[in-house]
């Protein structure tokens, strides 16, 4: 059965487009057009954009078509502030590095500086904590920490993160540090010197609402471990 004229024409068009694409790619690959003039690093707040650009290993003047974007992304991902990264060609003359940084939620002070932890409890860097990070104190440690790490007890860190994540915005903004000698012994120390004892992270949202209520009451030390009956703590 003969192919229709329309089908033949469609086949010719597809073939022509494929040939054109191959020629275009060959021009970009073998001739000195579309070279890298700029490596743009976007999304950086706390990290070093210049170091990330350098980590790509991409040189000015390199042919854009020959850039190994996967290798560049792997290299940038090794930078301490980087949680996720994509590297793409931005025709005709740039490389765009899009970075998502770790968001420091907690930090622990040590002799070598402040160890920063993200929202997943990952210890990712020793550096001054940015605004919004909450200090953890009295956190138990694992017996054999990895080199350069504090490796606090994961269950305790997870419980602290669950508590902080459940707090009303008003309460969260007043938390100066978290005292956490264990996952069931969590206390919030506020900027004004008051203390709110949570106990465990169970019913964290209810405890957070109770904490917001007691913030408007007299008393320096409160217990909201039973959120339906918060009490002054001796």
What does this structure look like?
- The protein is α/β, with parallel strands linked by helices.
- It folds into 2 domains: 35-101, Ubiquitin-like (UB roll), CATH 3.10.20; 104-232, Rossmann fold, CATH 3.40.50.
- The chain is built from 6 helices and 12 strands.
- It has helices at 5-30, 49-55, 69-77, 154-166, 169-172, 204-214, and strands at 38-42, 82-90, 94-101, 106-110, 113-117, 123-126, 134-137, 175-179, 186-190, 195-199, 221-223, 231-232.
- It has a 9-stranded mixed β-sheet, with helices on one face. The protein has a 3-stranded mixed β-sheet with strand order 1-3-2.
- Residues 21-29 have low confidence and may be disordered.
Features:
single chain; 234 residues; alpha/beta; Ubiquitin-like (UB roll); Rossmann fold; nine-stranded mixed sheet; three-stranded mixed sheet; 12 strands; POTRA; membrane; transmembrane
Question: TL;DR of this structure?
Answer:
The protein has 234 residues and is an alpha/beta fold. The chain has helices at residues 5-30, 49-55, 69-77, 154-166, 169-172, 204-214, and strands at residues 38-42, 82-90, 94-101, 106-110, 113-117, 123-126, 134-137, 175-179, 186-190, 195-199, 221-223, 231-232.
What is the topological layout?
Blueprint lengths: L4 H26 L7 E5 L6 H7 L13 H9 L4 E9 L3 E8 L4 E5 L2 E5 L5 E4 L7 E4 L16 H13 L2 H4 L2 E5 L6 E5 L4 E5 L4 H11 L6 E3 L7 E2 L2
Parallel strand pairs: 1-3, 4-7, 7-8, 10-11
Antiparallel strand pairs: 2-3, 4-5, 5-6, 8-9, 9-10, 11-12
Protein name: Cell division protein FtsQ
Subcellular location: Membrane
GO biological process, one term: cell division
